[in-house]
Design goal:
The protein contains 23 helices and no strands. Helix content is about 85%, strand content about 0%. It has 2 domains: about 220 residues, no CATH class; about 240 residues, no CATH class.
């Protein structure tokens, strides 16, 4: 009992901002775990074509969301919470009205050209109408959630998020089991859950806002966000567009196979996001104090840890696919290694970009994103045409590596301009680590039919990690934890 009381006292003494961050991180992890746990169920009760329909729906939904919201639920909304702190209700209501009008215009355009659009996206009219119903209300959920996060009101956000995740999974499984059109049924259950929560929040935001529209707020949001739209579109292309290209160039069934293997990346993403959430405040603190040598050393240790996780993850890819899906998805196992390795470079470029953001040098981000997106489309087209859908994962890995290199170069330029010295990171050892990760991550694929060799590789990594555990902890997580306490 005393131990429990001590833990509760320590928890109660945590500042509200840290407590909110802790709960939001927990909520994100649980939400992704629920999605991951239900994936093996859906892949076993749905055919590859049916799962492909659901994968394609998610990819197209992201495109339509960018168009109908102009990403007003991203950085500009947080900016508005600060700029118009005396009228946050009015700002929220205006953003909601703005996205509603844009969605209505897009829906009218869809109704006029629905036959062409239905054929192009390969989804039937009733599904597209349901998607637009979802698009009308989901911004309300986003605005409500972001505002609660901004004000550190974590309890309602955690409850709403977890209830939605459980209902989405539970209703989805039951409905799919009872239906013959399992792919479309899974889509409609997602739409249904969003409508159940979105409509009340839409009404709530409107009621407390007391005004439908304020011109000043709309002008500010649009002027702030328009220059960033290319960046958001480019990010989508890198994260999602490969699935659509697989669908259009091969088949919806291939998109399903690709989607299942790609979803395995959620495991690695949970690791990288959890580390990043704890790391960013510490990184900013070290940049502010100009303690660059310590920052460089800790970053390198963390890169090693993330790389080791990616290699272990890649080594266990056949076993992961056996858990996530049955034999009909087995060929997609070769998608997993490049996805895992891509997240290593994604983590690296985020670390470099944080330095740019610290010194308010974020304009080049848009150009890097555009270059990466263009390369991704070009190489996807060539790779998918020559080698099939698995090539799309390798082109995405290549583009993440380009992102990391580009941000490293621009970060170095930023450091030179602001601090007049070469760089805060040791580029040579980062390059060496990157080459080792790519070589080992690629070679593991050749041993997928030789489990003993793979297990030996994993065992070697784990033994090294165990022997060096104290040094690794004290040189990375220990330092970050000490700062955050």
């Amino acid at each position: 009992m005393n131990a429990v009381k001590k833990i509760l006292k320590k928890y109660n003494d945590i500042p509200i901002a840290a407590k909110a961050t802790l709960w939001f991180m927990f909520c994100t992890i649980v939400q992704k775990c629920i999605s991951l746990i239900t994936t093996p169920i859906f892949t076993r009760i749905m055919s590859t074509t049916q799962y492909g329909q659901f994968t394609v729906y998610n990819s197209w939904l992201q495109i339509f969301t960018i168009i109908t919201t102009l990403r007003l639920n991203y950085a500009v909304f947080n900016k508005g919470m600060s700029k118009y702190k005396d009228d946050r209700d009015g700002y929220t209501s205006t953003m909601q009205s703005l996205t509603f009008v844009i969605t209505a215009i897009c829906f009218i355009i869809y109704l006029i050209f629905h036959r062409f659009i239905d054929d192009f996206v390969e989804l039937p009219e009733f599904i597209m109408v349901a998607v637009f119903a979802e698009l009308f209300v989901t911004p309300a959920i986003d605005f409500w959630t972001i505002r609660k996060r901004y004000e550190y009101l974590y309890k309602p956000v955690v409850v709403r998020t977890l209830v939605m995740a459980v209902l989405n999974a539970g209703i989805g499984v039951v409905a799919v089991l009872l239906s013959d059109e399992k792919g479309y049924t899974r889509i409609l259950t997602c739409v249904f859950v969003n409508l159940v929560f979105g409509i009340p929040l839409f009404i709530h935001n409107r009621r407390v806002g007391k005004t439908w529209f304020k011109k000043e707020y709309a002008q500010f949001a649009l002027m702030f966000n328009f220059p960033l739209l290319l960046h958001y579109v480019s990010q989508y292309i890198l994260d999602q567009f490969d699935r659509i290209m697989v669908q259009k160039m091969i088949s919806i069934e291939a998109a399903g196979l690709y989607g299942v293997a790609y979803s395995a990346g959620l495991i690695m993403k949970i690791v990288t996001q959890s580390i990043n959430n704890a790391f960013v405040p510490w990184q900013y603190d070290k940049l502010e104090k100009k303690q660059f040598k310590e920052l460089d050393n800790v970053c390198f240790i963390i890169f090693i840890i993330v790389s080791g996780c990616a290699l272990v993850f890649s080594a266990f890819a056949p076993e992961i696919m056996m858990v996530l899906a049955d034999e009909k998805y087995s060929e997609a196992v070769y998608v997993i290694p490049p996805v895992a390795l891509g997240l290593v470079f994604s983590f690296m470029y985020t670390t470099f970009a944080n330095v740019e953001f610290f010194y308010d040098q974020n304009k080049f981000t848009m150009y890097i994103s555009m270059i990466g997106a263009t390369l991704n489309i070009l190489f996807n087209y060539i790779g998918i045409k020559l080698f099939g859908y698995i090539a799309a994962a390798y082109t995405t890995l290549f583009c993440y590596a380009v992102f990391a290199l580009s941000h490293y170069i621009y970060m170095t330029f930023t450091i030179k301009r602001n601090l007049s010295f070469k760089s805060i990171f040791n580029g040579r050892r980062l390059l060496l680590l990157s080459c080792i990760v790519l070589i080992f991550g690629t070679c593991i694929i050749f041993f997928y039919d030789k489990a003993i060799i793979r297990y030996a590789i994993v065992g070697g990594i784990l033994i090294i990690a165990f022997v060096k555990r104290e040094q690794l902890y004290s040189a990375s997580i220990g330092k970050i934890k000490k700062k955050n306490e």
